[in-house]
């Protein structure tokens, strides 16, 4: 190989950029750092990340950031337009401060996002890799179950679950997770099918490794990256589904400041008092967009098929 | 007069750690001859071939003091003109025909399309020409092959079809990048013979890119040996075994040989100084 | 004593009308400490024999034995894998892209129940000519030759007596090939290994092996010593054809037209 004229690197950067790491930790950190470098070079993805960090910050410090109590009603002060006295984004039909409600609502959004992101892909990964690696009748059974779930429109299925389990934010999350896992199972299975025939899996089999070890230690690490990308891209859909359930009155219940439920309440006044429904709508839009941007950036960094970028 | 004249060709890729130069100041010319470019992976031999056709994707850059096809400057040409040059004046055969043929189009249709794109001939004339070309690459039943899809062909057949397709427009130069390294030895000979015959009969220039020194020595007229993006040595192909540069010698000696068994193979020791040497000119 | 025995080995893929017979009635044996080569063109079934022995090809009939102990079915014991190891053709595909050299070797040692992992890894890396500085690199930080050395170190880790080599250098540059072949010769001497090597390159097999079997379309057409091969004493016309071709591109023939 020809030489590469290196830009000067010093201290911890040199330590991270080294081609010959001296320990397990250094090797791991160096590869993370490399990923970070290529992620950082994508401005859109960085924008997504900044918005989401902002969301995290807002949720964590909601009591400090919110100018008012999100549940405090003053009917005398109802339906104030944005920029009115003391209410930056106006007030809703019960005179509650919309900005404060959106700030507190971010906690609910994060809760939904986090729980769905933990439940659905993990279930999908389990089902998909087991089906893909073992093959045979187990594959057929698991994949037909997946097909059955896939055959229903997502929101309709979630509606059915919530109707059966009872309305409420917890059940809404459960319902969304139950409808979200099949695509992950499909992706994980497809990846597993290509990975399982590769030489490095054959090689570890020739060391006497059993299926459990191969699936968890050798197949999962390769499937996880594409699942993470997919989860991030799907998060926009999850937030919208949660908002949709809230809008239909099957998700978070009043007076909870869930964004979808807020839009639902604002619907009655949408012609005369547009801001009541628009402000939470903008919040949903921004966060969904941020997840999409982040997902795109992560795809470039994590997707093993896109190479190591050298 | 030479068909192709290249002077001080450079191919550069920006990387996170600075600029990476894949080709570093290569000069050569090509007449109606078979010019071999040999080197190991990473030597820049394939990049040189692609750079001539301006097939280096951005952010990679191609620069040269001169890159002329029969006196016409290739570097300043518009992308539209360049498309005419590719295929019509200069064709390229790649290593694996599987990736170069459209899998969902019949072979005949692909050859006809290429011919008509470059010549504007009638369908009937293009068809006759396609059959003629397939016959020229020793395909016994061209009518059947015309109707077949690429996946129905073996590796050797596929590569012959690629050659037929690339030569149907009667280009002046053929660039063959490892055209036979995916093939078995017995098929390899056949494909090379066909390529050789066509290149000779049509008075074309051939750039034959390969890692196989023996093959290049036997098949070409003149050889450029590349190392780390530069030409380290150039010689007549039949004199390759008398090459003097330590890199070339090292490569030749590291090959196991059936007729001269050895206990241990000689290992090529790379000298840092080679990186500093200036590129030898392959112009004539 | 013969280390590996194959008798009337048939290997096939698929069933019914889709059945492809990859190996048909292969019979040969490899004595202890010997190096045996299987040559042939792609699709001749040479690699399939190795894959059947280690259990990667499931459907086979006939008899295969390692040190007189016959193997059955496609499941192999831990003891088998401790004794018989394999190096794959493509070093770019045979190492897990997310595992460091250290992780690959440590896991192999652990699976075989070998302790003293730290020192063993250092020793294995030295054995295959890689220094300790390569220990924590990922495959993408290694060249093709270095990767193949790691794959060889992995095969050596359980201290096997037999190593199956599936075209170990065909994906490498010639200068790197020379290094890897030298390494394999040295290791065989140092560890008294038995090699069964598959290659399409007669010169490579000629350099590495004492006896070779020539395969064509799933059948062994000829078994001969390397000396006979060097002197072109091939009985079968296909072997002669391969030998001709391996001497290089024959220009004269071409002037007569193809």
Automatic annotation (TrEMBL), chain A:
<keyword id="KW-0472">Membrane</keyword>
<dbReference type="GO" id="GO:0071916">
    <property type="term" value="F:dipeptide transmembrane transporter activity"/>
</dbReference>
<dbReference type="InterPro" id="IPR025966">
    <property type="entry name" value="OppC_N"/>
</dbReference>
<dbReference type="GO" id="GO:0005886">
    <property type="term" value="C:plasma membrane"/>
</dbReference>
<keyword id="KW-0571">Peptide transport</keyword>
<feature type="transmembrane region" description="Helical">
    <location>
        <begin position="44"/>
        <end position="66"/>
    </location>
</feature>
<dbReference type="Pfam" id="PF12911">
    <property type="entry name" value="OppC_N"/>
</dbReference>
<keyword id="KW-1003">Cell membrane</keyword>
<dbReference type="InterPro" id="IPR035906">
    <property type="entry name" value="MetI-like_sf"/>
</dbReference>
<dbReference type="InterPro" id="IPR000515">
    <property type="entry name" value="MetI-like"/>
</dbReference>
<dbReference type="Pfam" id="PF00528">
    <property type="entry name" value="BPD_transp_1"/>
</dbReference>
<feature type="transmembrane region" description="Helical">
    <location>
        <begin position="273"/>
        <end position="295"/>
    </location>
</feature>
<protein>
    <submittedName>
        <fullName>ABC transporter permease</fullName>
    </submittedName>
</protein>
<comment type="similarity">
    <text>Belongs to the binding-protein-dependent transport system permease family. OppBC subfamily.</text>
</comment>
<keyword id="KW-0653">Protein transport</keyword>
TrEMBL record, chain B:
<dbReference type="GO" id="GO:0005524">
    <property type="term" value="F:ATP binding"/>
</dbReference>
<keyword id="KW-0547">Nucleotide-binding</keyword>
<dbReference type="GO" id="GO:0055085">
    <property type="term" value="P:transmembrane transport"/>
</dbReference>
<dbReference type="InterPro" id="IPR003439">
    <property type="entry name" value="ABC_transporter-like_ATP-bd"/>
</dbReference>
<keyword id="KW-1003">Cell membrane</keyword>
<dbReference type="InterPro" id="IPR013563">
    <property type="entry name" value="Oligopep_ABC_C"/>
</dbReference>
<keyword id="KW-0067">ATP-binding</keyword>
<comment type="similarity">
    <text>Belongs to the ABC transporter superfamily.</text>
</comment>
<dbReference type="InterPro" id="IPR003593">
    <property type="entry name" value="AAA+_ATPase"/>
</dbReference>
<feature type="domain" description="ABC transporter">
    <location>
        <begin position="4"/>
        <end position="253"/>
    </location>
</feature>
<dbReference type="Pfam" id="PF08352">
    <property type="entry name" value="oligo_HPY"/>
</dbReference>
<dbReference type="InterPro" id="IPR050388">
    <property type="entry name" value="ABC_Ni/Peptide_Import"/>
</dbReference>
<dbReference type="Pfam" id="PF00005">
    <property type="entry name" value="ABC_tran"/>
</dbReference>
<dbReference type="GO" id="GO:0005886">
    <property type="term" value="C:plasma membrane"/>
</dbReference>
<keyword id="KW-0813">Transport</keyword>
Automatic annotation (TrEMBL), chain C:
<dbReference type="InterPro" id="IPR027417">
    <property type="entry name" value="P-loop_NTPase"/>
</dbReference>
<dbReference type="GO" id="GO:0005886">
    <property type="term" value="C:plasma membrane"/>
</dbReference>
<dbReference type="GO" id="GO:0055085">
    <property type="term" value="P:transmembrane transport"/>
</dbReference>
<dbReference type="GO" id="GO:0005524">
    <property type="term" value="F:ATP binding"/>
</dbReference>
<comment type="function">
    <text>Part of the ABC transporter complex GsiABCD involved in glutathione import. Responsible for energy coupling to the transport system.</text>
</comment>
<dbReference type="InterPro" id="IPR003593">
    <property type="entry name" value="AAA+_ATPase"/>
</dbReference>
<keyword id="KW-1278">Translocase</keyword>
<keyword id="KW-0997">Cell inner membrane</keyword>
<dbReference type="InterPro" id="IPR003439">
    <property type="entry name" value="ABC_transporter-like_ATP-bd"/>
</dbReference>
<keyword id="KW-0813">Transport</keyword>
<keyword id="KW-0067">ATP-binding</keyword>
<keyword id="KW-1003">Cell membrane</keyword>
<comment type="subunit">
    <text>The complex is composed of two ATP-binding proteins (GsiA), two transmembrane proteins (GsiC and GsiD) and a solute-binding protein (GsiB).</text>
</comment>
<dbReference type="Pfam" id="PF00005">
    <property type="entry name" value="ABC_tran"/>
</dbReference>
<dbReference type="InterPro" id="IPR050319">
    <property type="entry name" value="ABC_transp_ATP-bind"/>
</dbReference>
């Amino acid at each position: 190989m020809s030489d590469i004229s290196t830009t000067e690197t010093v201290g911890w950067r040199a330590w991270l950029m080294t081609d010959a790491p001296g320990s397990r930790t250094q090797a791991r950190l160096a590869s993370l750092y490399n990923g970070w470098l290529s992620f950082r070079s994508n401005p859109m993805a960085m924008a997504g990340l900044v918005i989401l960090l902002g969301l995290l910050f807002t949720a964590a410090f909601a009591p400090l950031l919110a100018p008012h109590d999100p549940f405090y009603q003053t009917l005398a002060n109802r339906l104030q337009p944005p920029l009115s006295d003391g209410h930056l984004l106006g007030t809703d039909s019960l005179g509650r401060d919309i900005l404060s409600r959106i700030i507190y609502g971010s906690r609910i959004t994060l809760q939904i996002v986090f729980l769905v992101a933990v439940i659905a892909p993990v279930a999908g990964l389990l089902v998909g890799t087991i089906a893909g690696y073992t093959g045979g009748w187990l594959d057929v059974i698991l994949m037909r179950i997946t097909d059955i779930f896939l055959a229903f429109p997502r929101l309709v299925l979630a509606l059915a679950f919530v109707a059966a389990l009872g309305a409420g934010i917890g059940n809404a999350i459960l319902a969304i997770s139950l409808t979200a896992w099949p695509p992950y199972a499909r992706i994980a299975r497809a990846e597993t099918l290509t990975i399982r025939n590769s030489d490095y899996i054959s090689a570890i089999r020739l060391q006497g490794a059993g299926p459990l070890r191969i699936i968890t230690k050798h197949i999962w690490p390769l499937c996880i990256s594409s699942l993470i990308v997919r989860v991030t891209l799907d998060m926009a859909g999850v937030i919208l589904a949660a908002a949709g359930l809230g809008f239909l009155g099957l998700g978070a219940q009043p007076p909870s400041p869930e964004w979808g439920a807020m839009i639902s309440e604002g619907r009655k006044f949408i012609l005369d008092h547009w801001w009541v429904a628009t402000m939470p709508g903008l919040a949903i839009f921004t966060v969904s967009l941020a997840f999409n941007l982040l997902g795109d950036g992560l795809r470039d960094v994590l997707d093993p098929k896109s190479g190591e970028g050298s | 007069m030479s068909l192709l004249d290249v002077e001080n060709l450079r191919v550069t890729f920006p990387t996170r750690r600075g600029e990476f130069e894949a080709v570093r100041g290569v000069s050569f010319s090509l007449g109606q001859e078979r010019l071999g470019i040999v080197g190991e992976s990473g030597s820049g031999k394939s990049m040189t071939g692609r750079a001539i056709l301006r097939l280096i994707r951005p952010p990679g850059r191609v620069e040269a003091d001169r890159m002329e096809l029969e006196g016409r400057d290739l570097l300043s040409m518009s992308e539209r003109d360049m498309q005419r040059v590719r295929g019509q004046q200069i064709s390229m055969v790649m290593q694996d025909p599987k990736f170069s043929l459209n899998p969902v189009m019949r072979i005949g249709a692909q050859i006809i399309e290429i011919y008509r794109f470059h010549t504007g001939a009638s369908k009937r004339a293009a068809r006759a020409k396609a059959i003629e070309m397939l016959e020229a690459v020793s395909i016994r039943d061209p009518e059947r092959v015309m109707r077949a899809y690429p996946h129905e062909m073996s590796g050797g057949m596929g590569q012959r079809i690629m050659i037929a397709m690339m030569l149907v427009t009667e280009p002046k130069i053929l660039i063959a990048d490892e055209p036979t390294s995916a093939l078995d030895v017995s098929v390899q000979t056949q494909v090379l013979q066909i390529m050789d015959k066509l290149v000779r009969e049509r008075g074309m220039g051939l750039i034959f890119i390969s890692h196989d020194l023996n093959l290049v020595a036997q098949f070409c007229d003149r050889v450029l040996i590349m190392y780390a993006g530069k030409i380290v040595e150039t010689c007549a192909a039949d004199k390759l075994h008398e090459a003097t540069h330590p890199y070339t010698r090292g490569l030749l000696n590291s090959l196991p040989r059936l007729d001269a068994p050895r206990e241990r193979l000689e290992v090529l020791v790379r000298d840092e100084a080679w990186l500093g040497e200036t590129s030898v000119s392959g112009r004539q | 004593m013969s280390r590996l025995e194959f008798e009337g080995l048939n290997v096939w893929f698929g069933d019914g009308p889709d059945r492809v017979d990859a190996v048909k009635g292969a019979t040969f044996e490899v004595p202890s400490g010997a190096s045996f080569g299987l040559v042939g063109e792609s699709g001749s079934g040479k690699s399939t024999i190795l894959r059947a022995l280690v259990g990667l090809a499931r459907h086979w009939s006939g008899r295969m034995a390692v040190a007189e102990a016959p193997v059955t079915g496609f499941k192999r014991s831990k003891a088998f894998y401790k004794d018989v190891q394999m190096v794959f053709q493509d070093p770019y595909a045979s190492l897990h892209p997310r595992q460091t050299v250290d992780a690959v070797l440590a896991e192999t040692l652990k699976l075989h129940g070998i302790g003293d992992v730290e020192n063993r890894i250092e020793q294995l890396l030295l054995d295959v000519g890689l220094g300790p500085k390569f220990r924590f690199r990922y495959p993408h930080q290694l060249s093709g030759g270095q990767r193949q050395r790691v794959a060889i170190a992995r095969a050596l880790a359980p201290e096997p007596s037999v190593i199956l080599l599936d075209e170990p250098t065909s994906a490498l540059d010639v200068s790197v090939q020379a290094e890897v072949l030298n390494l394999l010769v040295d290791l065989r001497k140092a560890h008294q290994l038995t090699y069964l090597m598959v290659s399409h390159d007669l010169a490579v097999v000629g350099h590495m092996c004492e006896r070779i079997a020539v395969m064509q379309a799933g059948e062994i057409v000829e078994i001969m010593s390397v000396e006979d091969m060097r002197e072109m004493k091939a009985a079968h016309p296909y072997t002669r054809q391969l030998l001709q071709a391996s001497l290089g591109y024959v220009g004269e023939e071409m002037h007569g037209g193809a």
